[in-house]
Design brief:
269 residues, alpha/beta, 11 helices
Length: 269
């Protein structure tokens, strides 16, 4: 098992902190009863597990992950809720969830679809452990338009083309673009009554420190992804708008905006 946090952990945490209120509001609308136990597979550092525990004052949020480093981070983050019996952390894999058939009251999966090597099998595992009639909720983005920024269009197009230049067959990208394939995949896994809601999260100036930090890390990530596929001038422009020391740092521009298109998908077991 992994005992070190992956490179994207800091970027993910910055996004969670910047948009925490919006994610909390999304979870508040889900149809679970306050005494139920809800599974958070691929829980990472426990951010969403903690929000679920807030939503379930008499229930339990169960965070599951294969990474011992992420589970340790979740344990530190959620120490008080764990002590109060509101959170339970489990080391495990969606290839074979460590739960008996029809024993889980609900599942909330956030931004994890791209991490499952066999996504159809993972969805079948979700269906196996859920009680009949219970709700699966999936919060995902579509990688092609998940983040919207007020950067120059020509620069964005150049970076996006470099980022998405190599793409494999459908099996390799259904997780990254999950909302496009959700209806078919969930039906094949045995789910019914699929509902889809688009939630647009936006921020405008003044921008707080967590969002500044996220945009900095996000642009750095894009630069790494496009490395070697951009000319020197484009690379320099991208570095400039992503550098907090630069006068052109994107979040501090007067016309700055940030948008994140989240897709909330629910289905019945």
């Amino acid at each position: 098992m992994n005992d070190t946090l992956p490179d994207y952990a800091g970027r993910l945490d910055a996004l969670h902190q910047a948009l925490a209120a919006d994610f909390r509001a999304i979870i508040a609308r889900l149809p679970w009863r306050e005494h139920e136990s809800i599974l958070d597979p691929g829980c990472g550092d426990g951010f969403f597990t903690g929000l679920l525990a807030e939503r379930l004052p008499r229930g339990v949020a169960v965070g599951l992950d294969t990474s011992t480093a992420f589970l340790a981070a979740a344990e530190a983050r959620l120490a008080e809720q764990i002590e109060a019996g509101r959170v339970r952390l489990v080391e495990g894999n969606v290839d074979r969830l460590p739960f008996d058939d029809a024993t889980i009251d609900g599942i909330f999966s956030a931004h994890s679809m791209q991490s499952y090597p066999d996504l159809p099998h993972a969805l079948r595992e979700f269906r196996r452990v859920l009680r009949a009639g219970s709700t699966l909720a999936i919060l995902e983005t579509d990688n092609a338009h998940s983040i919207m920024l007020s950067w120059p269009p020509d620069l964005e197009l150049a970076v996006r083309q470099a980022e998405h230049r190599e793409i494999g067959d459908e099996d390799s990208y259904i997780g990254t673009y999950f909302p496009r394939f959700a209806s078919r995949l969930l039906a094949e896994a045995g789910f019914t009554d699929l509902q889809r809601e688009y939630v647009f999260v936006e921020r405008q100036p003044p921008v707080d420190e967590p969002l500044e930090r996220y945009v900095e890390l996000y642009l750095k990530y894009l630069a790494e992804q496009a490395s070697g596929r951009l000319d020197a001038a484009t690379t320099a422009r991208l570095a400039e708008i992503g550098d907090p020391r630069s006068k052109r740092f994107l979040p501090r521009q007067e016309n700055f905006f940030f948008g994140s298109l989240q897709t909330l998908i629910t289905a019945r077991a």
